[in-house]
Amino acid sequence: MKRDKYSNRSVYIIMLVIILSTNYLYSQSRLVLNNDPWIVMNNNAYIVLGNSNANAITLAGFGGRIVSEAENNKIRWNIGTSTGTYTLPFADNLAEGGTKIPLTLTIGTSGTGAGFVDFSTYDGATWNNALYMPSMVTHMGQYLSPNAPNNSQKAIDRFWLLNAQGYVTKPTPSSMVFTYIDNEHTAGGNSITESVLGAQRFNNGTNQWGDMLPIGLVNTLSNTVTTPAISAANFFAAWTLSDSNDPLPVSLLSFNASCEKNNILLKWTTLSEQNNHYFTVMKSFDGYTFSPIGTVLGNGNSNTIRNYLFVDKAYQEKAYYQLSQTDFDGKTTSYDLVLASCEEYLPLEIITVNYNSNQQVIAYLQIPTIGNYTINIYDLKGSLLFEKTLYLQKGVLPLPLDISKISGGVYFFSVQNDFQKVSKKFFLNR
Fold first, then answer.
1. H or E segment and range at residue 21
2. Alpha-carbon distance 268 to 304, whole Å?
3. Of the ranges 69-73, 205-209, 343-347, which one carries the lowest mean pLDDT score?
C-alpha cells in the first residue's frame, strides 16, 4: 500500500500479470501497457501486432513488461513497408526479478513486400551459450567448424532474435539498442570486459560469426549497446553481445593437407583476422604429441580472404598436422587436426584365413601402415570369442593365432586400426 502525497489517500498498486501459453494475443490497433502490467509468454506463444506503426506498442505511466525468455515466444510485428523506432518492452522472467531489458529497432529505409519481424530474447542457465543456441546458430567457436573451441566465455549469456521474414528486400536498420543485465556478463565462467561490449550477429547463410565484427557503442551505466546503421544484407536474425577485444570471429575457412612431389602442402584460408601476429604449424606422428615445424606471419587485421601455404619436406610415414594462431598479445588458439602422407596407399585387407593341424588359425593380412591392430573372432550370433591387439609391420604378412579353445563351426575374423575395419567369414573344421 502506498500513500498518495496529494490527497493523503491510501492507493493500492495492483500488478496485472497476463500469461500466454500456446495461444495468440492479436492486436489490430494498439497494445497499451499502462502502470507496469506483465505479459508472460510460455510454450511458443505469439503476440501478433497487425498495426505497422511504431506506436502499436505504447507505454504509459510506469510502462509494462513482456517476458519472452525463449526463442519461440515471439512478438510478430507486421511492419511491412513502414519505418520508425520500434521498441519491445522485454523483461527478464519473474523468478529472476523481472529486470526491464527493452530492445529497440529503428528502421531507416523500408523493406519491400508484405513482411514482418519476429522479436524474442532469452538468457541461459550458464555462461556456456553453446548449450542454448538459437535454432539457426550452429556453433559459438572462433571460426566455421562446429568443432571449433567454444568461445562462449566472451559472449554475454543472452541471445536476441530479430527475424525479418516475408520481404523481397529486408528493411535497413539505422540503429538497434540492446539492453543487457550485469549478471549475464559477470557470471562465473565468463571473461568479458564490459566497456568493450559490441553487438554481433550470426550469418546463417554462410554459417559464421566472423564476417562482421562486434559493433556499437556501449553505455555501462544504462547497460545498453547501440549499433550504427547496418545494411539489409547484414540484418540476420540471431544476435548476442561479445567482447570486441576478443570477438567470436577469427574466421578460418579451411585447413587441409595434400601430397605433391613427395612434399606435404599445407594450405589454409582465413575470412577475417584480428590482431593476428603469426601461425605455427605443428606436426605429430601419434596425434597426441606435437612439435612446431615452422611459422607463417599473419596479416594483423583483415576483413578480406587470405590464403596461406606451408611446405613440409615429408618422408613416407603418415603424420598429423595442427595449426595454431598467435595474437600480438600472445594469446594462442589451436585448430583441428589433419592427417597426411606421401606413402602409396594400401587398403587394410584380410587375404585368407586358414586352419592348420596345430590348432592355429593362419590369417594373411595386408597391413597399410605400421601400428596397433585389434584382432577379433565372433560367432554367427555376434558373440566375441577371441580378442588380441598386436603391433604389426606394414606389408603382407601371415598371422598365426592359437584358438584351441574354440570348437568347430563358422566364424567371422575381423581386424581393425583407428581408421579401418574389415571382416571375413571362415570355417573352422575340427
1. strand 17-21
2. 14
3. 343-347
The whole domain housing 259 covers 252-340
- 166 with 114: CB under 8 angstroms? yes
Whether residues 66 and 180 fall in one domain = yes
pLDDT of residue 430: 63
Q: Position 384: which residue type?
A: L
- The continuous run of DSSP H or E covering 51 comes out as none
Question: Whole-model pTM?
Answer: 0.58
Q: Over range 250-257, report the average pLDDT.
A: 76
pLDDT value of position 374: 93
Task: Answer positive or negative: Cα dihedral of 362, 368, 371, 373.
Answer: negative
Residue by residue, DSSP assigns 365-390 as EEESSSEEEEEEEEETT--EEEEEEE
Same-domain check for residues 166 and 273: no
**Which CATH number goes with the domain that contains 333?**
2.60.40.10
The C-alpha cell 500456446 sits at 22
312 φ, ψ (degrees, to nearest 5) = -105, 120
Q: How many residues make up the chain in this entry?
A: 430
- Residue 183 backbone dihedrals phi, psi, to 5 degrees: -70, -5
- Express as a percent the part of the chain with pLDDT over 70: 87
As a whole number, mean pLDDT of residues 295-310 equals 86
- For the chain, what is the domain count? 3
Q: Average pLDDT for residues 295-311, to the nearest whole number?
A: 86
Q: Which of 283, 314, 340 represents a domain boundary (last residue)?
A: 340
Q: In the prediction, which pLDDT does 306 show?
A: 87
H helices of 127-203, in order, are none
Question: What is the rounded distance in angstroms from the CA atom of residue 122 to the CA atom of residue 116?
Answer: 20
Question: How are beta strands 197-201 and 217-219 bridged, if at all?
Answer: unpaired
d(CA 186, CA 266): 40
Four-residue CA torsion sign, 224, 141, 186, 75? positive
- Structure confidence at residue 25 (pLDDT): 59
Spatial contact of 98 and 38, defined as CB atoms under 8 Å apart: yes
> Rounded distance, CA 23 to CA 211, Å?
38
CA angle 233, 119, 65 (to 5 degrees): 145
Q: Is residue 224 located within the same domain as residue 261? A: no
pLDDT tens for each residue of 44-93:
988 999 899 999 999 999 899 999 999 999 999 999 999 999 999 999 98
Same domain, 107 and 189: yes
